[in-house]
Amino acid sequence: MNKHFLLPLVAPNLLLAFAFFCSVSSLQAQWKAYTPALSETVGAFDLRIAQGTDQVAWCVAMKYDVTPTAYTWVPSDSLFFTKTADGGDTWSAGAIPMGAEPYASNICPISSTTAWASGTDVDFVSYVLRTDDGGATWKRQLEDGFTGATSYVDFVHFWDEQNGLAVGDPAPSATEPDPFYEIYTTSDGGLTWSRVPSTNIPPPIADEYGSAALYEVRGDYVWFVTIDVTTGTGKRLFRTKDRGQTWEVLSAADNRINLFSFADTLHGLGAKRISPTKAQLVFTADGGDTWTELPTFLSSIPTTSYVLIPGSNFILVTRRVNNVTGPFRTTLSKDLGKTWIELSTGTGENVGTVHFNSATLGYGGEWQPTGHATRMYKYAGSPLTGLLSGLALDARVTLSPNPTADQVNVEIEVAEPAEFLLLFHDAQGRLMERRFLEKTSVGNARFDLSHLPAGVYTLSVSSQRGYLTRAISKI
Length: 475
Description:
There is one protein chain. It contains 2 helices and 36 strands. The chain is elongated, with a radius of gyration of 23 Å. The protein folds into 2 domains: 3-380, YVTN repeat-like/Quinoprotein amine dehydrogenase (Methylamine Dehydrogenase, Chain H, 7 Propeller), CATH 2.130.10.10; 396-474, Immunoglobulin-like (Sandwich), CATH 2.60.40. The strands form 8 sheets. Strands 2, 3, 4, 5 and 6 form a 5-stranded antiparallel sheet that branches. Strands 15, 16, 17, 18 and 19 form a 5-stranded antiparallel sheet that branches. The protein is an all-beta fold. The N and C termini lie far apart (62 Å). It has helices spanning 3-6, 384-389, and strands at 32-34, 43-49, 57-66, 71-74, 79-84, 92-96, 103-109, 115-120, 126-131, 139-141, 153-158, 164-171, 180-186, 194-195, 208-209, 215-218, 221-228, 234-240, 248-249, 259-262, 268-275, 278-284, 292-293, 297-298, 303-308, 315-320, 328-333, 341-344, 351-356, 361-366, 376-380, 396-400, 407-425, 431-448, 455-463, 466-474. The longest helix has 6 residues, at 384-389.
């Protein structure tokens, strides 16, 4: 039985899709929404941003049957893709032919014209496809790979137009009868592939397989997580430092990490699922050699994604009340999980995936909607980037009166005009109110606290140049 079909949502943080520009939200939202030019309403599965530029991103999407509590893959004739080449201002879309009733494994862009996609069809035939014309046509590669009865391609990655890697489940070779992870490398754009010998890969353990799209790439480093095919829980985390030539199992082997995110070659986050609303987070500052437990992440609603933001190492999490109506919440920790603040609590921001290659631009995608065309999201621009950059905002912020019994006036002064986002939180980090100030060097806002209980509240002031926080006491 193909574990891809057994666990279609084992990586809910990998759902995405986007395309032709049609803004449906203002700058006051944390996420700018776009309606893609897709022929059908679909749910995004895997998004990847091209290495070296965050202006180019592609994603692959599939059909799903969606209810408030369930999200089930539905067979269709082909896979769908969407892509942007200008940082999300415009998008295009198309189809990826991949046998009968295909299921996506991943997508990997090199540029606006060149990308690879992988997946498995209903007959368990694996595909590695390349396009050089922006997705108008796709050519199959590696046809002699992943042909075993239980070996399926989990992902393909290319660093440039020549050098790439394809990873699949354990399978024997012509000379070795014992299964080992089926991993190939290429240096000629995928015309020829060489299988990595078993001596360079830790052997599989009982009930262990890879899983579609559960991988991360930073520089020459690649990590992928394995799962227990009987339970769906994470088993081990594999790493290569040399683009797939040699592999090792990291010390997180017993952490049962299901989802993970690396900001660079050193700093990474892992999430061990305890329940739909509880996860044990772990952090590494040495690429995965050692891990430290962070505070357990507790949520009243299920979590769809965790991401470690490059450049700041902030943790951003998206959550949902249900799959259809939301609200869909975006939450940020600036201290590795000790405290959290909500950035968005909207009913219209159904962001099921988050992916960043820098602290200045990220993308998110919608779980297949029921009442409108699929939407994609971009997290970018002033003042949104200031929240993620980790930079301190050079500004004079005056609060008066403080303490206050009812209202507090906020005055912001900066040397150069800027747009500002003001987020007002309670002591638990819940978003109480959000304000947006147009470009100015002297900005003013007023918050009404008369209906709130006594206590300490927090105001975050963010521009493109950075952010700061101030405490407000309600008496």
